[in-house]
Specification:
190 residues; mainly alpha; 2 domains
């Protein structure tokens, strides 16, 4: 689940960045902290020995940011990480800092709201409207395909025609012909 949330977060960041084009990546290499070292530092700051003992409320945004950067370096090492940082606003930008904080929070399972980071309500209003829109889209697509297949299926069939005897019975039932005419024409048909 954490990987899914992280992937969605990263995709959101890339989508909102506008993919900014291919620009030169950072000229100066900056040391990216090791993931294990960052987790150890956070655990030591809370005097705990395991990650599951961490209290999310005691982790600072600076620690989350450092953790998020280490997570991103682990998933996308070297120049790929640098390029992704550039797409998210570049070194020193607030948008990159917020994204690294969010990645750190997601890695520890400490998901906080976008509002707490100053981003408003997050993607699609934060109310699940995105899921509803996606669901409606697929329902409409499936119904459209079903309608198209059914209409094409029925196009090839000829309409059912009534037999002469059925037509004769209908005319008699409607009173268009008398009993004698019905019997006479019935003998002609059969």
């Amino acid at each position: 689940m954490k990987k899914f949330i992280f992937s969605v977060t990263l995709a959101t960041a890339l989508a909102f960045s506008g993919f900014g084009g291919l620009h030169a990546v950072r000229a100066a290499e900056t040391a990216v902290p090791n993931l294990k070292d960052v987790i150890t530092q956070i655990a030591n700051s809370q005097n705990v020995t395991a990650v599951d003992q961490l209290s999310c409320s005691k982790v600072t945004n600076d620690q989350f940011e450092k953790l998020g950067e280490a997570v991103m370096e682990t998933l996308h090492p070297g120049s790929v990480h640098e390029y992704m940082d550039k797409m998210m606003g570049g070194e020193g930008s607030d948008s990159l800092r917020i994204m690294h904080i969010r990645m750190g929070q997601q890695y520890l399972g400490c998901g906080s709201s976008y509002a707490a980071l100053g981003l408003g309500y997050g993607m699609m209003g934060g109310t699940g409207i995105g899921f509803i829109i996606m669901l409606l889209f697929w329902v409409i697509v499936i119904l459209g395909i079903t309608w198209l297949v059914r209409s094409l299926w029925h196009t090839g069939k000829e309409p059912k025609t009534s037999s002469a005897l059925e037509i004769l019975r209908e005319r008699y039932a409607k009173g268009e012909i008398s009993k004698e005419e019905f019997e006479s024409k019935k003998k002609d048909i059969i």
